[in-house]
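Dear colleagues,

As part of the handover before I leave the project, I'm documenting each prediction I ran so the next person doesn't have to rerun anything. This entry is a single chain, and its sequence is reproduced below.
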Amino acid sequence: MANTNDDVGRASSEDSDTAEASSVTLVDQPELQETPQHNENLLPLEERKRIIITETPKPVFDALFKWINRHCAHIDESVPEDDEGCMLHLSPPDTGSNTIQTNLYWDHPQGRQSVMINFGVAVIVIARYLGREEGVLTQEQLDGFINNGWHLSHLCGNWTCLNIDHYTIEPGSVNISRNGCFSQKAPCQHKPRCMREHKRPVNELRPRIDHPYLNQFMVSVEDQGREEDGYDADHEEKD
């Protein structure tokens, strides 16, 4: 495998300029909890995606920010840091789909809503909220992502890479076509180009139990959840 096809909302069940979130819950994969009965998803998937990426209610930002920081604590510190290199997740969750993702639930005036969101999209959402250059998307990318199922592509071909500079939003067909660049020596014709110099074998992207940095990150999700205040990034809210 080379590049991973990432999207938001595809695993979810089925215009409000004043949309607000009074509560937000994130549930990491694959430990999905039973979907709450009040999770009705009355809004179309496209509208839910639009709210998350263009309006981003403050509680959603707070929950995603905590979730992202938790995963960034697992970056492989043995890999030399530079301006262009990958930031590889040392112990990525075993979702069976080669993606780091979470279920995002939030309350909306039209009822409980949810989307499945992957790490790369979450990082772009946070960057956009903060006005960072890394979160800038063209109108074509926004429309494609919200309405046409465009993917988040890993330009480096490493699904565990957490470097926002290695992400782009593009049609799924283009994302899939990048696989050939990582298995051939012909010049890359993609724009932006594939970062073939950073591609790792898939078996190197799985947790290494003998890695010197692993033990310090072996904190249970349950214990982490107890220590946090505010929005819980691992457990459903209890009524």
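Confidence is low (pLDDT under 50) at residues 1-6, 8-22, 29-37, 208-239. Strands lie at 24-28, 101-108, 111-118, 151-154, 167-170.

All the best with the project,
I.
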